[in-house]
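ok so i was messing around last nite and threw this chain in just to see what happens. nothing serious, just curious
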Amino acid sequence: MAEQPARLASAPGIKRDGTRFDNEHYLDGEWCRFQRGMPKKIGGYQQVTDTVPEITRGMHSFSADNIQYLHLGHPNTLGQYQVSNGTLNLFTDRTPAGFVTNVDNLWQFDIFADVSGTGNHVLMAHAAPNAANIDNSVGGNIYIDTIDATTPLTTVGLNAAWNTGTDRPVSGGVVTSGVYIWAYGSNGLIIQSQANNLSTAPVEINIGTQKIVKGMPLRGSGTGPAILLWALDSLIRGTFTGGTPPFAYDVIARGITVLSSQGIIEMDGIYYWPGVDRWYMFNGVVREIPNNFNQNFFFDNLNFNARQKCFGMKIPRYGELWWCYPRGTATECTHAVVFNVREGYWYDTPLPGQDGINQGRTAGIYADVYKRPFMVDNEIRTTGGMGRTLWQHETAFDKIRASSVSAVLSSFETHEFCMLDQQVADKSLRVARVEPDLVQAGNMTLQVRGRANAKAAVVDGATETIFETPSSSDEETVKFKEVKRLMSFKFTSNVQGGNYELGKTYAHIEPADGRIES
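result:
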């Protein structure tokens, strides 16, 4: 059989579940996404500040007058970071007086418009020691203040019933929808404000028996706002009726689970979240999200004891939902699985680390007005600002820390090609050259990897350069002298300014003598 061109394209997404050989999708990848079904490097990230004083356990973003007001909640403090064009303008400590510190404090935030008729936007904040246990029943106070103020948050203006009573302080969190505010917590507790009024005693009810861990606004029926509340065993809907009380509550689904109160993501009016053993979505009804790519990979390797450290965020430009999680024995998020809602497949990546070490991230949020997400490092820097780093992601292609620019490694590996697909069992493949077709910035490398059979160990072959700008016709293609019975191809970008998007790339291969045993 003469040399034949074979297109180096696998099915989109990175498939981790099942065997390496029984896989038509890409086998591996790092800092690589898929768009239009093709591998593409994920964007870089730049430092906003490296002075974040503590580990971050919750974030909120609000934009006005070209300033992003980022509030970062920590175990002992609450900080406001005013950011403009990726640069920190001002940091303010907004920790409430008398705030009860706890190493496991986890924050929830929301914004409420015009509580007192002043036209101000008010930040609602709540912290309770939920990071270690999602079913924690120890509560924390609710605090408020104007979102762009620089003063500490306070309970001033809140009716005392919000933070006192048999079930208070609340252990769950706080959320707003329309002109109403809700707090929630253990034993199905729901505390609902009067319309546009926090100074009057709220309405208190209990729905179900398990703790409510998260609330999010829901599109109402046209007569008023609505709310979704995630309990540990059910999904509850609150619908405006206009009566007394003004909301009616019903259980939409029982038997659902919630992995983490930080893992629920809304995009385009649909809600997505991981349970303890599968993924869910709500678009009017609760449904399971099929995941044949990395469901076992995720749940089998998740450090379940650190489940509340998992957090989710969206990147709408690419139709992506990210769930960052602690893998193996890690106690902070070191990896992410990504669901591409727009194109319907999954992939994953290690999270970036500090100074080349995979230390991961502890919190992240997508800033809607200016399209780029923010994430916060886990580890304290021993140089520079001597704190943790707040990063703005999806900025160009490099890691930028002050004046230091370094490459961001990105790679992907195709599925295994073999002659078995041609009903030829005793032949290997010989690759002579590859014709790369890439949208490319910076040189890349291409490595042939392979093995003798499905039980054999993978052996790395030669690594050659894919030149961004070939200086001669000899550099326009990549030449190899590799023979493998099962053969895959690994593409890597690891230079400053490096970027890529795979196109119609072909390998010229032909049968060769081969051995089934290594």
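not much to say yet. Residues 44 and 395 are 5 Å apart (CA to CA).
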